[in-house]
Amino acid sequence: MKSITHPFGELFQPIFHLFGLIMAFFYGLVPNYAFAIIALTIVIMGVLTPFTVKSTKSMVAMQKVQPEIKKLQQKYKGPENRQQLNEELMKLYKEEGVNPVGGCLPVLLQAPFLFILYSVIKGLTKTAMDNGKLVGSPLYIPENSTMYQNLHHSVGQIRVFGMNMSLKTFSHHSSIYTQIPFFALVLFAVGLQYFQMAQVNNRAKKTGQNLPSQQQTMQKLLPIIFFYFYVIIPAAVVLYMVSSTIIRIVTQYVMFKTGVSDPSKHDKKEVEKEIPGKKGEKGAKAPEPSTLKPANPQNRSKAKRNRKAR
């Protein structure tokens, strides 16, 4: 395994040092590892948030076109029509501007950051022998930083609220009681992911949209898959996932609250664009039917007599 990951580690060395430098900077402001990790998460999510917004819009758009997708699936049933169905689906996605895998974007983008953060945390906990004494010898951070000095004296232990965040859930713990907070953190992280997905599902129900079956399956499987990863990675990386999920939940809440991803509002705008208005006016609304008074037959006959008299 080491021989496989080693080339990637070499390639990412400058990024490891950048992340370590950012963490050391935040730790210098507030000497708390949780604060440094959360602050780094905010920086990372600041970069990823536009992709989260795009992904959420894509999920809502997919819900919107579900009725059309079902019609096509009914029309092109059977394996002999599979190619035709795929072509029609791609055409529909293109016309509606929908990316069927757009909802997976945040998860896919998280993968390299998880690898980077895992490598940085592992580097921070490195130890070495100094005059016959075991001391911390952290990598990726400046030796003159407060974070380096504290890790040196604590022998690479990332202590947060009594927890050594460099340990994993199933690492060797002093007792079952010291292991409980690690389990609680993992369960909290998984619960947040389910909550984030429920947030999208509830929004879909309110707008009368159907959730794609593939998306439903993915929503059930992803937290279970992540549960496995959470128990085999250091608690400090799980804390990053907790922080990033909370930021995504807040981002989605703001989007739904402000109507940025409301498909009904999008439809209304499209309809207004199609209504012909006055010359030079874009999207002018058509007059209400009640304001259009039918012509009086007597007035029409009177107008005819006047024209004849002329």
Distance between the termini: 101 Å
Radius of gyration: 29 Å
Given as residue ranges, the uncertain stretches (5+ residues, pLDDT < 50) are 266-275, 278-284, 286-295
Give a quick account of the main beta sheet: strands, pairing sense, barrel closure: 2 strands, antiparallel
Number of strands: 4
What is the H/E order? HHHHHHEEHEEHHHHH
Overall geometry comes to elongated
Structural category is mainly alpha
Binned, the helix content reads: 55-70%
Continuous helix count: 12
Residues in β-strands, percent: under 5%
Average predicted confidence as pLDDT? 78
Write down the domain tally.
Answer: 1
Cross-sheet strand order for the largest sheet: 1-2
Give a description of the structure:
A two-stranded antiparallel sheet has the order 1-2. It has a two-stranded antiparallel sheet with strand order 3-4. The protein contains twelve helices and four strands; from the N terminus they run ααααααββαββααααα. It has one domain (2-257). By secondary structure, the protein is mostly helical. Helix 3 packs antiparallel against helix 6 and helix 8 runs parallel beside helix 10 (235-258). The N and C termini lie far apart (101 Å). The chain has helices at residues 2-11, 13-29, 33-64, 66-75, 82-96, 105-124, 146-153, 176-206, 213-232, 235-258, 263-274, 297-309; strands at residues 127-130, 133-136, 159-160, 163-164. Helix content is 68%, strand content 4%. The radius of gyration is 29 Å and the shape is elongated.
